[in-house]
Design brief:
mainly alpha; 3 strands; globular; disordered N terminus
Length: 502
């Protein structure tokens, strides 16, 4: 009897969600009855299965196109973050926010290209990657494998940039540009990449794809990176906001710091919601076979959780605060999106609604907690990404459905993996234990690097801008004047001629 199992060669990209996605793997191990193995290349596989080479190339191209398309959606999230942050700060600090978000895309890309990708997805050990710096290592044996690696690099760059951008909104209006560059470097090099390696590679100690040594025998359930992206970014945001301190006058009883533009906040939220379909659905890394079905279900789960969380937040806002605040509702929607990110590929639609409803409560009361502690998080990045991210990491092993898991991860062939707590108490409990351990490790890892980093910058007086710059706005001193120059000119003209209508 001859049996066949898909494997990867040493040159394959370890960031491989499914080796069964239409010839995505480079080789097959063919086990013969005498116990020996025959190694088949991609072209031999095509001949063996009767697959036309042109069809195989088309299938690879389709998967690569899917990844590139999803990458484009995720990159649009940078525009969403920018609009939310600009809408949340005062006019005098607009350019400061804009330049920092541009640097996320530029400086973060250079660092991830040089170091981050290799440390995250290079082959090495269970803790960290070790090859692929500057993308100079062998990309694969075929053109298709090389194209897939490049596509995955771009996709992962947008994930890393997202984690970095989360921090900028939390510490807005009082943080030095130099400090921002320093922690962006550390986040894209030493904080995010190891966590991504632990979670998504076949070597990672927490990865469900680690067939030889899964954590507690089952691994961590986190499909699209609620831990690697949102908990990492949210933890850095909380540490940064705490150490940099609140803005001048933020918690004065007789003073309220006005936000610049609610319209920008709403439009930014809708852009993030739009981009989140690329974030979650695109994480299938394939659109062939069962992955197409998984992507469609993920889209439903993403929508349902966001809508349920937004609706719940509206109700909480009305019954507890007696108002309908668009900013609060926007953050409630984002909290629902974060909450379902880890579980979106494993749950039924009604379960994603439950996740979103609970996520709304986590965000709402988490935001109230920060205010009571006098921690000034300008855009509520910590409640949205850290608090809701923590809930999302807990929700995945509670609601996971084995049949949906198998359709999403056909390469994970173990019968003892993929059950949720509600479906199988023993295996689901092990998954929950693995996720709780991973949650503690991720927060500890981020704190181990970010807290001393921010504290050192603070001691060296490199973290916070001076009071004069903060009072008059950073744009005036560092960025060539305020962002809305025509408006400033009209205002000055009106002041010099009071009889003139603005």
């Amino acid at each position: 009897m001859v049996t066949m199992t898909t494997t990867q060669t040493s040159n394959d990209n370890p960031y491989e969600f499914s080796s069964s996605a239409v010839m995505a793997s480079a080789v097959l191990n063919v086990s013969v009855s005498d116990g020996s193995y025959i190694l088949l290349t991609s072209s031999m596989i095509s001949d063996l299965l009767g697959v036309d080479e042109a069809l195989y190339n088309n299938q690879v191209s389709l998967n690569v196109t899917w990844i590139v398309f999803a990458t484009s959606l995720v990159f649009i999230m940078q525009a969403g973050f920018t609009m939310i942050e600009v809408g949340s700060v005062r006019i005098k600090n607009t350019k400061s926010i804009l330049i920092k978000n541009l640097l996320d895309c530029c400086f973060g890309s250079v660092v991830f290209f040089a170091y981050g990708w290799a440390l995250a997805f290079g082959e090495s050990n269970a803790f960290i990657g070790g090859n692929g710096f500057l993308l100079l290592s062998d990309m694969g044996n075929t053109t298709g494998e090389e194209a897939r690696t490049y596509a995955l690099w771009t996709f992962q760059y947008t994930f890393c940039a997202t984690a970095s951008t989360i921090v900028s909104g939390a510490v807005a209006e009082r943080t030095q540009l130099f400090a921002y560059l320093v922690y962006t470097f550390f986040l894209t090099t030493f904080i995010y990449p190891p966590v991504a390696h632990w979670l998504w590679t076949e070597e990672g100690w927490a990865s469900v794809h680690n067939k030889d040594n899964r954590l507690f025998g089952v691994g961590v359930l986190d499909f699209a990176g609620v831990s690697a992206v949102h908990m990492v970014g949210g933890s850095c945001a909380l540490i940064g906001a705490y150490l940099v301190g609140p803005r001048i006058g933020r918690f004065d009883k007789n003073r309220k710091i006005a936000k610049q533009n609610t319209v920008f906040q709403v439009l930014g939220t809708l852009l993030l919601w739009f981009g989140w379909y690329g974030f979650n659905c695109g994480s299938t890394q394939s659109i062939i076979g069962t992955h197409a079905q998984s992507a469609s279900k993920i889209g439903v789960a993403t929508t349902a959780s966001a809508a349920a969380s937004g609706t719940t937040t509206i109700l909480l806002n009305f019954f507890l605060d007696r108002r309908f605040d668009p900013t609060t509702v926007c953050n409630g929607i984002l909290g629902g999106l974060v909450s379902v990110t880890g579980a979106c590929a494993f749950v039924l639609p009604y379960e994603s609604v439950i996740i979103g409803v609970i996520g709304a409560h986590v965000y709402y009361f988490g935001s109230k907690l920060l205010v009571s502690l006098k921690i000034d998080d300008v855009v509520d990045a910590s409640p949205v990404h850290l608090f809701c991210g923590t809930w999302g990491l807990i929700a995945a092993p509670i609601f996971c459905n084995k049949d949906i898991f198998d359709a999403t991860f056909p390469d994970v062939d173990s019968q003892d993996v993929g059950y949720g707590l509600l479906e199988n108490g023993k295996i689901g409990g092990m998954h929950l234990a693995a996720n709780l351990v991973f949650m503690i490790v991720v927060i500890s890892w981020v704190s181990f690097i970010a807290f001393p980093l921010f504290l050192t910058l603070k001691k060296l007086r490199l973290l916070r801008i001076n009071n004069i710059h903060e009072g008059h706005g950073v744009d005036k001193y560092l960025h060539g004047g305020e962002a809305y120059e025509n408006q400033v000119a009209r205002t000055n003209s009106t002041k010099s001629n009071p009889d003139r209508k603005p």
